[in-house]
Amino acid sequence: MEKGKILIVEDERQISEILTAYLEKEGFTVSTADTGRKAIKLLKGGFDLIILDLMLPDIQGEEICESVRNDSDIPILMLTAKSDEEDRIRGLGMGADDYVVKPFSPREVVARVKALLRRTRKGREELSFNKGDLVISPSTMETRKAGDAVTLTPTEFRILQTLAERPGQVFTRLQLVNTILGYDFEGYDRTIDAHIKNIRQKIEDNPRSPVYIKTVYGVGYKFTGQVDAD
Ligand code: CA
């Protein structure tokens, strides 16, 4: 299984080779560039993460970092020999996501790479259903139906997210009240029906014959969208 494509931009061959060996052992696909010019050429290759040395023979790491940031949010792990605080802050200020100071242990770099990928992937994680017909982004609280943004109230969004995160699972009205209010509240459960009705109006092609949120008579509701593969 491919874990991700990584570009190492580093002119010190020994460092580049040792990092490549460690990352490949972990299942990553690694490309290397020993100059900034080569790096910029390679950058079109759709990498998941860049390990970037700050001091390169031709173009400085800062400049590469800025040019990467101009058109992508690919995570950048900066390698730096400069250890004083100001340079670190500057490194992060120009768009690097993390940095390690030389000399470092390759194991440490691998751990940072994994953490960075985990962080960025989690932030991008979207719930997508029925071949992209319905897309829900928990991090931005955005919903799209057939490509168009849908405006849900925060309560409607919480209900939809709760259902969609566990397709097929039946939720009672009281459980759904609990996800909104954080506690059970008798008498409030019927208003769930009103929220569900509103959500259906917004995300279903035919709210009278819903494909996403089905009523389980006498119990509650369940989400029945088909999860899209990544
Ligand atoms: Ca260097």
Structure, described:
This protein is an alpha/beta fold and 230 residues long. The chain folds into two domains: 5-121, Rossmann fold (3-Layer(aba) Sandwich); 127-223, Winged helix-like DNA-binding domain superfamily/Winged helix DNA-binding domain (Arc Repressor Mutant, subunit A), CATH 1.10.10.10. It has helices at residues 13-25, 36-42, 61-71, 85-93, 106-124, 154-165, 173-181, 189-203; strands at 5-9, 29-33, 49-53, 76-80, 98-101, 127-129, 134-137, 142-145, 148-150, 170-172, 213-216, 220-223. The strands form three sheets. Strands 2-1-3-4-5 form a five-stranded parallel sheet, with helices on both faces. Strands 6-7-8-9 form a four-stranded antiparallel sheet, with helices on one face. A three-stranded antiparallel sheet has the order 10-12-11. Helix 6 crosses helix 8. It starts with a strand and ends in a 7-residue tail after the last strand. The mean pLDDT is 87. It binds calcium ion. Residues 11-12, 53, 55-56 line the site of calcium ion.
Q: Outline of this structure?
A:
This protein has 230 residues and is α/β, with parallel strands linked by helices. Helix content is 41%, strand content 21%.
For the structure shown, list the relevant keywords.
alpha/beta; Arc Repressor Mutant, subunit A; 5-stranded parallel beta sheet; 8 helices; 41% helix
Low-confidence regions: none
The run of helices and strands is EHEHEHEHEHEEEEHEHHEE
Strand runs, count = 12
End-to-end Cα distance: 14 Å
- The secondary-structure class comes to alpha/beta
Envelope shape: elongated
Architecture (CATH level 2) name of the largest domain: 3-Layer(aba) Sandwich
Largest sheet report: 5 strands, parallel
In the CATH scheme, what's the topology name of the largest domain? Rossmann fold
Which band does the percent of strand residues land in?
Answer: 15-25%
